[in-house]
């Protein structure tokens, strides 16, 4: 069956350091892979996406890397700030039917 | 203001009762989704709808039902057949299309069975 999962459930970093959050997926029937951020008690918010024919995409302070050979997705956050503390989910959108499937999530904690 | 609204924020239900969670959006989005989130867990897809009067089961549809009679509304009914309904329920909407990856989420409804 399909699944999108994360390697590390928790990640603690020092303010100012770079953070790397990883995700493994098993189903390749997706055209896009996406990262969402969820703060406590709120719904997830879109951060960045990457199309399956790309291997890297950069946004503001964030970079997403896609390695289709090993079915691995990562989110890099540069100069991590306390406001980055949240749970981060990877997700994939199927190109057939538009199904949007989420992974388990990684909780990022930023120490001042 | 455009957005997606879930109500109520907190809901208590007695065992054996059905309960309906509301989700309304004024973003003119075709696609809508319902997810369940348990503590420390990810989001699991219950149902989704790509167009009015049509919807598909997600990964955990048993014990739930939905309707999509209007584009703006996608209510979720948690039936008595759902064995463990206590959870945080999230509704989302997005434009329809393979390139439309940004889903907008409501603030969620926390359902507790007492």
Q: Would you kindly provide a written description of the structure presented here, covering whatever features stand out?
A:
- The complex is a heterodimer of chains A (112) and B (114).
- With 112 residues, chain A is mostly beta strands.
- In chain A, 0% of the residues lie in helices and 56% in strands.
- Chain A is built from no helices and 11 strands.
- Chain A has strands at residues 4-5, 10-14, 19-25, 30-38, 45-51, 56-58, 62-67, 72-77, 86-94, 100-102, 106-111.
- In chain A, the strands form 2 sheets. In chain A, strands 2, 4, 5, 9, 10 and 11 form a 6-stranded mixed beta sheet that branches. Chain A has a 5-stranded antiparallel beta sheet with strand order 1-3-8-7-6, with no helix packed on it.
- In chain A, a hairpin with a 3-residue loop joins strand 6 and strand 7 (62-67).
- The termini of chain A are far apart.
- In chain B, 0% of the residues lie in helices and 49% in strands.
- In chain B, strands 2, 4, 5, 6, 9, 10 and 11 form a 7-stranded mixed beta sheet that branches. Chain B has a 4-stranded antiparallel beta sheet with strand order 1-3-8-7, with no helix packed on it.
- In chain B, a hairpin with a 5-residue loop joins strand 4 and strand 5 (43-51).
- Chain B is globular.
- Chain B starts with a strand and ends with a strand.
- Classes of the chains: A mainly beta (112), B mainly beta (114).
- Chains A and B meet through strand 4, strand 5 and strand 10 of A and strand 4, strand 5, strand 9 and strand 10 of B.
């Amino acid at each position: 069956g399909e699944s999108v999962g994360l390697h590390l459930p928790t990640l603690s970093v020092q303010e100012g350091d770079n953070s790397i959050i990883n995700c493994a997926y098993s189903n390749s029937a997706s055209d896009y892979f996406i990262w969402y951020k969820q703060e406590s008690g709120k719904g997830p918010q879109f951060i960045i996406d990457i199309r399956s024919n790309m291997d890297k995409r950069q946004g503001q302070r964030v970079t997403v890397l896609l390695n289709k050979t090993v079915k691995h997705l990562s989110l890099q956050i540069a100069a991590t700030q306390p406001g980055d503390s949240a749970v981060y989910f990877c997700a994939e959108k199927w190109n057939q039917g538009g199904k949007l499937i989420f992974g388990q999530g990684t909780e990022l904690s930023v120490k001042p | 203001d455009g957005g997606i609204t879930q109500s109520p924020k907190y809901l208590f239900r007695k065992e054996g009762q059905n309960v309906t969670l509301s989700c309304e959006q004024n973003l003119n989005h075709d696609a809508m989704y319902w997810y369940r989130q348990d503590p420390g867990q990810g989001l699991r897809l219950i149902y989704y709808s790509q167009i009015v009067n049509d919807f598909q089961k997600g990964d955990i549809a048993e014990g739930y039902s939905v309707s999509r009679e209007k584009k703006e509304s996608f209510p979720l009914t948690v039936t008595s057949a759902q064995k463990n309904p206590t959870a945080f329920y999230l509704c989302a909407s997005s434009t329809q299309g393979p390139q439309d990856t940004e889903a907008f989420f409501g603030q969620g409804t926390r359902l507790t069975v007492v």
